[in-house]
Amino acid sequence: MDTIFALASAQGKAGVSVVRISGPNALEAANQICDRPLPEKGRGLRILRDADGNHLDEALVLTFKAPASFTGENIVEFQVHGSTAVVSSVLDTLSATLDLRLAEPGEFTRRALENGKLDLAQVEGLADLIDAETEAQRKQAQVVLSGGVGQLAERWRIDLIRAASLIEVTIDFADEDVPVDVTPEVTALLEGVATDLQRETDGVKIAERIRDGFEVAIIGAPNVGKSTLLNALAGREAAITSEYAGTTRDVIEVRMDLGGLPVTLLDTAGLRETDDHVEGIGIELARKRAEHADLRVFLAERADSLDLEMRAGDIRLIPKADTLADTLSDTQGAISGKTGEGVDALVLHISKVLKDRSTQVGVATRARHRDMMMQALASIKDAQKVLERGSEFYDIAAEDMRSAIRALEMLVGRVGVENLLDEIFSSFCLGK
User: Fold this and answer.
1) Which CATH number covers residue 86?
2) What contacts 15, CB < 8 A, 6 or more positions away?
3) In this structure, is residue 162 part of a structural domain?
4) What does the alpha-carbon distance between residue 187 and residue 194 come to, in Å, rounded to a whole number?
5) DSSP letters along 356-408, please?
6) Are residues 357 and 398 located together in one domain of the fold?
7) Has residue 188 been placed in a domain?
8) What is the C-alpha separation between 430 and 11, in angstroms, rounded?
9) How far apart are CA 413 and CA 28, in angstroms?
10) Neighbours of 45 (CB within 10 A)
């Protein structure tokens, strides 16, 4: 296998930058550019020199010998001063070194997968951790990266292998009296795995929202203060506001961190009947986004009927609280983006609703995880139905169990996922 290298830290000026080498010739290549042999204890300061002996930089050199490294191969890391000139000179020197080449995006992590240091779900968890912007995203990614999905899959796999083995013993001794009826144990094993799989698949949608962000749509008639409220929540002029109805014609999105959860606020076109073709397109788009939003904030007077039916968790507020003091004796449930009245309470309410939903999250976080688990669950249910038909159909039930096992192996990348790898690793940077 080739020996590869890349900048493992972010591009650009920094206090310290990390250059990583991995592969069978990593130690030899590092020795070629260090002024003296690599440190025996795995770390030490060395002068880095190019092929002509010119001083490049003084670096902290770290060595990780196979298989006790991230990739499972020999790894050397240079922590150099983080100027673009220093980094470029070190990379140029490595590129001229025999048997080294620049790593492809995600190649270090791909080698970790191929060498059994990570399973596929952990690779996806690492990608999510790199992209994490909020505390909830970080925690969720850490669970997956630590092997949470793989541990669950292995436990289910062991139970299914046990169930299939018991059934196959019955098949092998079909002409003899088997001393123990294995059906109760097999039934219990299948039921336990099926229950766990159902719970995990139910939680994937919430997990995806934590990773990608919850959507909260602000809904109401034209000129009720939706854009003003969005600006107040965002803390900036994200949307144009005016006294003229129909100003907002497209969906305006603002990304926020609410209580550690990623939330995208949607300012939508005012809902009304209109002859304006462009505004009509905006209103139709507003309805579609509102239907798919995780939570909706309706701005409407108490006597007004709503264009959309409220769902569990939706919030209804009276708009323009700053204009109501003279007309309403009770302004509870009113909000004003202009003065900020009720805005803090709305933020707390949204955070509470979304945090309550987040408690339903499982370990699995991606649509691919859900698909593999649903595939396994379907095979288990088929096996349960076949078992009820009697022992003459046990061979079919055993095959259904093996199908469930294969789906779980695909979940962690042991089999049948080669076509996914290029797509997954394309999202990684060169040094990862």
Assistant:
1) 3.30.1360.120
2) 81, 82
3) yes
4) 10
5) HHHTT--S--SHHHHHHHHHHHHHHHHHHHHHTT-GGGHHHHHHHHHHHHHHH
6) yes
7) yes
8) 10
9) 33
10) 12
Three-state DSSP at 418 gives helix
Same domain, yes or no: 338 and 275: yes
- Give the model confidence (pLDDT) of 115-168 as tens digits: 999 999 999 999 899 888 889 899 999 999 999 999 999 999 999 999 998 888
**How wide is the angle at C-alpha 83 spanned by C-alphas 79 and 84, nearest 5°?**
110
Cis status of the peptide bond prior to 67, with omega within 30 of 0: yes
DSSP reduced 3-state for 137: helix
3-state secondary structure at position 118: coil
Flag whether 146 is in a domain: yes
Residue 355 within a domain: yes
CATH number of the domain at 377, please: 3.40.50.300
Which residue type sits at 73? Answer: E
Q: SS3 of 338, please?
A: coil
pLDDT tens across 329-368, in order? Answer: 455 678 887 888 888 888 899 999 998 888 888 888 888 8
- The closest of 42, 366, 394 to 201, measured between CA atoms, is 366
Residue ranges making up the domain that contains 21: 3-114
Which are the contacts of 161, defined by CB distance < 8 A and separation ≥ 6? 405
